[in-house]
Description:
heterodimer, A: three-stranded antiparallel beta sheet, 6 strands, B: alpha+beta, HU Protein, Chain A, two-stranded antiparallel sheet
Amino acid sequence: MSETTITRAHLSEAVYQEVGLSRNESAELLESVLNEISEALADGETVKLSSFGSFSVRQKGQRIGRNPKTGEQVPILPRRVLVFRPSHVLKLRINQNRHPGDTD
Amino acid sequence: MTKSELIARIAAANPHLYHRDVERIVTTIFDEITTALARGDRVELRGFGAFSVKERDARLGRNPRTGEAVNVSAKYVPFFKTGKELREKLNTDG
Lengths: 104, 94
């Protein structure tokens, strides 16, 4: 599989092509979108983006972990983790043109 | 927060932009990520996180209602790994 990595540069270029803003402003707007989502999540909000998916924050309790190298027991402190649930539409799109096992 | 609330927040912070342009910006970003994933590409947004596609093998599933065995074919699933900065942000602001 020929895998490319898409970065901020590609996304802001797409925004630039789509809307009549400067490249600079397109990049800034991409950044504000990511920031708004991050802020909402940090506030404990769930972010639901229709036809893409939802991001939610889950509280994890303390548990005992183990350092895999030394075997030593270490407590893993309670923490908040982000969970992404892809929408049905996104799952369909990802399986629309390619199938596992096909040779590219 | 829904997509329309996200659009409203960005629009409020950018009063010089038309609401419909902000809508196009947000839509373009997520369409672009979706298209990339549909191609099998990875989308890496440093500090925020990375979207990728993982392969799931075919398996024998079960209809939870009837208990009937059903073949579930191999498929791709989207996956998101939270970026370091965002992960830290979730555990400092709260």
